[in-house]
Amino acid sequence: MAACEKQVAIYPAPDAGAPIVYLPVVAGMGDDVLQCCCDLGCLPFTLVAIGGLDWNRELSPWPCDAITAASEPFAGEAAAFLHELTRKIIPSIEAPLAVPPRLRAIAGYSLAGLFALWACCKTDLFSRAASISGSLWFPGFAEYLDENLPQGALDVAYLSLGKKEHKTPNRMMRKVLADTKRCEQTLQDRGAKTLFECNPGNHFSEPALRSARGIAWMLAQ
Predict the structure, then answer these.
(1) How far apart are CA 6 and CA 50, in angstroms?
(2) pTM score > 0.90 for this model?
(3) Residues facing residue 158 across a β-bridge
(4) What region does 33 belong to: left with phi over 0, alpha with psi -120 to 50, or beta?
(5) What is the pLDDT of residues 187-210, one digit of tens each?
(6) I need a surface site. Which of 103, 130, 132, 178 has the fewest CB within 10 A?
(7) Which long-range contacts (CB under 8 A, 24 or more apart) does 13-17 make?
């Protein structure tokens, strides 16, 4: 299914009113995440995988320099994608449903995990969120979340990192563990039930399985 210039893949749950999880992905990742969710015995849910994103541009909340000489800077255009998600993609998927979802959640890996928490500062459409190996090192984000996340914005929030992610010479990314823990504290202070998990490996280890672990825990609460 193509919607709003994005590639939107819907994996419907068999039962009416099942939870819906919106997940920005790279190409093909939706299939892998759903399979891992099935392998983990995850509760039934509808997965909406959104591809076709320019990650550094559309998932960054404000501009930021590139993290390496070989990478692109972050353009800070997340607001435009959030508008597309909330005003076009979500209505186009949920309007035809005979029964509304019991809950609506947002999840994401890496920059999409950053976007997931940032989005919850901007809209009350999501009651649960998962930031999996989230780029919460993003300059100023931990402070932004603390200053802008409303009380009661989320019922449940899942956070994770790879154990090696903070062991990097990169000056921005090496603080990801401390920033993630600060974000978890903010989420708890605002009333969310949280879990923070450290997984084996670095940032690139088993993204589909890590995503599935976050989704499974988030839906089980």
Answers:
(1) 7
(2) yes
(3) 130, 195
(4) alpha
(5) 999 999 999 999 988 777 899 999
(6) 178
(7) 13/44, 13/45, 13/46, 14/44, 15/44, 16/97, 16/98, 16/99, 17/99, 17/100, 17/101, 17/102
